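My main concern about presentation is that the manuscript never shows what a single data entry looks like. For the editor and my fellow referees, an illustration may be useful. For illustration, here is how one protein appears when written out as sequence plus structure tokens:

***
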Amino acid sequence: MAGLDKRVATYEEALAGLTDNMTVLAGGFGLCGIPENLIAQIKRMGVKGLTVVSNNCGVDGFGLGVLLEDRQIRKMISSYVGENALFERQLLSGELEVELTPQGTLAEKLRAGGAGIPAFYTATGYGTPVAEGKETRQFNGRNVILEEAITGDFAIVKGWKADHFGNVVYRHTAQNFNPVVATAGKITVVEVEEIVEPGVLLPTEIHTPGIYVDRVILGTFEKRIEQRTIKKS
């Protein structure tokens, strides 16, 4: 498996097999390190009823926010939703189901899913609405709740560099949720800024081994800034 060439030439090939009512895991944090072209392809495909798991839901008109325009997302599992007016309207109107999850818990749910761990205990959320309906226990005098792992039908990931075999390197903070997302999808698709020849990436610099990756595509990216702040003169 590690020797397979995982490059695809088109975004249609990259997301072949994605259909209505699937669960999609998406890397990124705010607008940093988001798989923006894969998201745009999902919009073009017009698939509906999606459950999307991501730290947030982009902004109006960009990132995952574009999937709200035609109501392609049925349920959103995320930790932050404060930058999207359309998201707010659909949530308040009952059109969009939202499961808010503490950020660290969301990361661990994805990591556990990728590692084959079905559930784990955490103190985060105990005694709050997050814990409602969940099993509670006590370890060493500390109350904890049981959280279930997350996996998905597709994982869409943004990397910096990859080789033909799907070994991926992320750039600085664009790493964010991408590595855990990459491990937790039945089909993991990575779009990157550069594809290099096998052997160029040192084993010590690879963040996501190719064993987790099914398809790699070369893309061009807008890299929009979410909140631009400049120093006043």
Summary: The CA atoms of residues 19 and 138 lie 42 Å apart. The helical segments are 11-14, 36-45, 66-69, 85-93, 103-115, 178-183. The domain at 11-117+149-218 is CATH 3.40.1080.10 (Glutaconate Coenzyme A-transferase).
